[in-house]
Write a structure and sequence with these properties.
Low-confidence stretches of chain B: none
Largest interface: A-B, 23 and 21 residues
Structural class of chain A: alpha+beta
Number of helices of chain B: 6
Largest sheet of chain A: 8 strands, antiparallel
Low-confidence stretches of chain A: none
CATH architecture of one domain in chain A: 2-Layer Sandwich
CATH topology of the largest domain in chain B: Rossmann fold
Radius of gyration of chain B: 24 Å
Strand content of chain B: 25-35%
Order of helices and strands of chain B: EEEEEHEHEHEHEEEEHEH
Strand order of the largest sheet of chain B: 11-10-9-12-8-1-6-7-13
Number of strands of chain B: 13
CATH architecture of the largest domain in chain B: 3-Layer(aba) Sandwich
Strand content of chain A: 15-25%
Shape of chain A: globular
Mean pLDDT of chain A: 94
Radius of gyration of chain A: 22 Å
CATH class of one domain in chain A: Alpha Beta
Number of helices of chain A: 15
Distance between the termini of chain B: 68 Å
Structural class of chain B: alpha/beta
Number of strands of chain A: 19
CATH superfamily of the largest domain in chain B: HUPs
CATH topology of one domain in chain A: Alpha-Beta Plaits
Oligomer: heterodimer
Largest sheet of chain B: 9 strands, mixed
Chain lengths: 470, 271
């Protein structure tokens, strides 16, 4: 595929579409749009131009221009992605939704909010607070990520066991197609089988089929009471083996998060936090919530009792907001803390059926010993979704790392997919980072269907090209 | 060693908004919490009783909902909890509050130490701890950052002062107000919670503590909060334009003058 390089006349056209202040070409300013939260050293490509349109019509006009001249367009949210999805692999245009951050309509009667794709997810929930409603499908990066990014990646997060992931909450959306057409999918209805479900197809499509500019989100009532438990175990295996038991108890926890000692330690030292760690090999962080204080208290005790019966060293509880924030801060900061500890790394996102969770850790340990690399592991254990993070040894050269990293990942994925019936990504997506593995691990008939689908939507391959598929 | 820790229920800080028109606090009422700084007082008390034996009693004055913070203190390790709750206590300022708490402490009886947090995060006065010491005529050490020595008769503490630390020896019983440096608070445990669920919180009213009615509530409070204001932060900016060599030199000279005026420059090397 040959793409048209960005010329002065193209810049002129872009400027005419969305005003000079929304067209960036200065290399210092556009550098920030060349990477996301994956290791910058490994994944980074400069765009030729960055545009920050302010309306759906402008987005459509940009796509019509790109379609006419065959220019690659990479849509971008907050850039907090973890798979390289927003990196402009072929240069061209990065289309950032950062200026489309309005709330269009809060509809308390229908329990929906309609907002533009560039609104920060946390901001959306802050603005909804007074209505007593919230969007429950948000990821851990809620303080920076955008709603549009949540949808494009079908983000999960810390509350998915009880509340599910983003897709559960998207009722409608406005999408600009690669040809620059504006389409409205879904609406405010909660059920809809009136045709192929294009809306669900767009959710998690990582900007490869079109650009989501607006979405209507289903809201639910904010639970009145929530309590957390922090449970240390003397062996990681013991901790993780409790997870399937917890899920069978008849109580649906909001979260069951797993943190091995290394992740927990790195995060605590990053936050300057001191929590008792003697003899601890792993921690579970469990949250329960509800509308009645007595019920939540009973659930808390039942969950705590089960953990104690399964050999927990102690059961710490956090019922008030300060203590809850104290322990959740440790969990939330892990990814950032590991990044500070070692910027070159591969943050993985494997997901397995919950009964298979206990088999993941011994495999990781074996990998870690054989390759002599540290692999801290944490994540949403209740969903079978673990963020094993392979960290480059500081003494290794980048060349050595680049040679070994794919080998480790290949082994890991083969085990997860082949042996355990799992998938290589639960919530971070494929993007640039895992596309080769998708090709390797997907049966050819299925892979061909994926390619046919992409071609049908985007025959010129201008819409976030080079992502998910090769 | 018997230690009494007075604690306070405060609004959760993220839930407090100021009404821009009236200047008063809007409490969404959804969640209150134990004053975060009281956690340090509790931790200091637990460490002392763990090292020297004894027990911790917690006491709070407040509405029914304040029982939650007593439960939390019980699940952290306190043995006894007393809830001072009565209509006439309502509207007490720091003077009346410290009087009520001192009456309760007197009724509790024999104790070696009273430990309070540095201040509460809502009122921010830091007056109640010292107030209690005054009512009970106790030795007072404020802003304690560490306890170096504790015997049955005296205690040596290090207190944080503006220019550094001060070591103070005080005879017991005494009252300490502690700062964050004293220790990192422990988290409540399930075992502690079960103990808390099984224990009863004693409820005392004005009569139980034989409080002088003229000294409690709004009537017994010599101070009133008339108005709460958010101070305006005013910044004044001066921009020196530096286009071209001459203008740049002039701008640098201006900047040097300005910084010297504010005594922010140590030395100037002219190049």
């Amino acid at each position: 595929m040959t793409y048209t390089p960005i010329t002065a006349s193209i810049i002129e056209e872009l400027t005419a579409i969305c005003s000079p202040s929304n067209v960036l070409t200065d290399s210092e300013r556009i550098e920030g749009y060349s990477h996301d939260e994956t290791s910058k050293e490994q994944y980074s490509v400069m765009p030729e131009v960055v545009v920050t349109p302010t309306t759906t019509e402008q987005v459509a006009a940009i796509m019509r221009l790109a379609d006419r001249l065959t220019i690659p367009v990479t849509p971008r949210g907050a850039g907090s992605g973890l798979s390289g999805g927003a990196i402009p692999l072929f240069g061209g245009i990065v289309l950032s939704l950062e200026k489309m951050n309005r709330i269009i309509d809060i509809d308390e009667g229908n329990l929906t909010v309609t907002a533009e794709a560039g609104i920060v997810t946390n901001e959306l929930n802050e603005r909804l607070k007074d209505t007593g409603l919230f969007f429950a499908g948000y990821p851990m990066s809620l303080e920076s990520c955008y709603l549009g990014g949540n949808i494009a990646e079908n983000a999960g997060g810390g509350k998915a066991i009880k509340y599910g992931v983003t897709s559960r909450y998207v009722l409608g959306m406005t999408v600009v197609t690669p040809q620059g057409e504006i389409v409205h999918l879904g609406g405010k209805v909660t059920k809809d089988v009136s045709s192929y479900d294009l809306k669900q197809l767009y959710i998690g499509s990582e900007g490869t089929l079109g650009i989501i500019t607006e979405a209507t989100i289903k809201l639910i009532g904010i639970p009145k009471v929530a309590s957390s438990l922090l449970v240390p175990f003397a062996s990681a295996q013991q901790a993780i083996s409790v997870v399937p038991l917890l899920m069978k108890q008849g109580i649906i926890p909001v979260s069951i998060e797993f943190m091995d000692r290394l992740s927990f330690e790195i995060s605590c030292s990053y936050l300057n936090e001191t929590l008792p760690l003697e003899g601890v090999a792993a921690m579970l962080l469990i949250e329960v919530d509800g509308s009645e204080e007595a019920q939540v208290e009973a659930d808390l005790v039942a969950v705590g009792d089960l953990c104690e019966a399964q050999g927990a060293m102690e059961v710490y509880i956090a019922e008030d907001a300060n203590n809850r924030e104290r322990i959740w801060a440790v969990r939330r900061a892990i990814a950032e803390a590991i990044k500070v500890y070692s910027p070159i790394q591969s943050l993985e996102d494997v997901v397995v059926p919950i009964a298979a969770i206990p088999q993941v850790l011994p495999f990781l340990e074996e990998l870690s010993t054989r390759y002599r690399l540290r692999i801290p592991c944490y994540g949403h254990a209740g969903d079978g979704n673990l963020h094993a993070t392979v960290i480059k040894d500081p003494d290794w050269t980048i060349e050595k790392w680049l040679e070994v990293e794919p080998k480790i990942l290949r082994e890991l994925y083969a085990f997860i997919v082949g042996e355990l019936g799992g998938k290589i990504s639960g919530e971070h997506g494929i993007g640039l980072k895992r596309r080769e593995f998708v090709k390797e691990l997907t049966p050819s008939a299925e892979y061909e269907l994926l390619k046919t689908l992409k071609r049908a939507f985007d025959p010129k391959n201008i819409m976030n090209p080079g992502k998910i598929l090769i | 060693m018997h230690i009494i820790v007075p604690i306070k229920q405060v609004p959760q800080s993220s839930d407090v908004k100021m009404d821009p028109v009236t200047g008063t606090m809007i409490r969404s009422g959804r969640s209150s919490t134990l004053n975060p700084l009281d956690l340090y007082a509790l931790e200091a008390a637990f460490r002392l009783t763990e090292a020297h034996g004894g027990s911790v009693t917690v006491v709070t004055m407040g509405p029914d909902s304040a029982a939650n913070i007593l439960k939390e203190a019980l699940s952290m390790g306190a043995e006894r909890a007393i809830h001072l709750t009565d209509r006439p206590f309502g509207g007490s300022d720091t003077y009346a509050t410290s009087y009520v708490l001192s009456r309760a402490i007197e009724k509790i009886g024999s104790y070696d130490l009273v430990i309070t947090g540095e201040r509460a995060t809502d009122g921010d006065t830091a007056q109640v701890g010292p107030g209690i010491a005054a009512w009970l005529d106790l030795g007072l050490v404020t802003y304690v950052s560490s306890i170096e020595e504790a015997t049955s008769t005296h205690l040596v503490a290090e207190r944080l002062v503006e220019e550094g630390y001060q070591r103070v020896q005080v005879a017991l019983p005494a009252l300490l107000t502690v700062v964050k440096e004293i220790a990192i608070p422990r988290l409540p445990t399930l075992k502690g919670k079960k103990r808390a669920m099984a224990s009863t919180i004693e409820r005392w009213d004005a009569e139980a503590i034989e409080a002088d009615r003229s000294r409690i509530g709004l009537k017994g409070s010599p101070t009133r909060v008339v108005k709460i204001e958010t101070p305006k932060v005013a910044r004044s900016c001066t921009i020196y334009h530096a286009d071209g060599d001459e203008a740049t030199l002039a701008a640098v000279d201006h900047l040097i003058d300005l910084l010297e005026e504010q005594q922010l420059l140590k030395e100037v090397h002219h190049g």
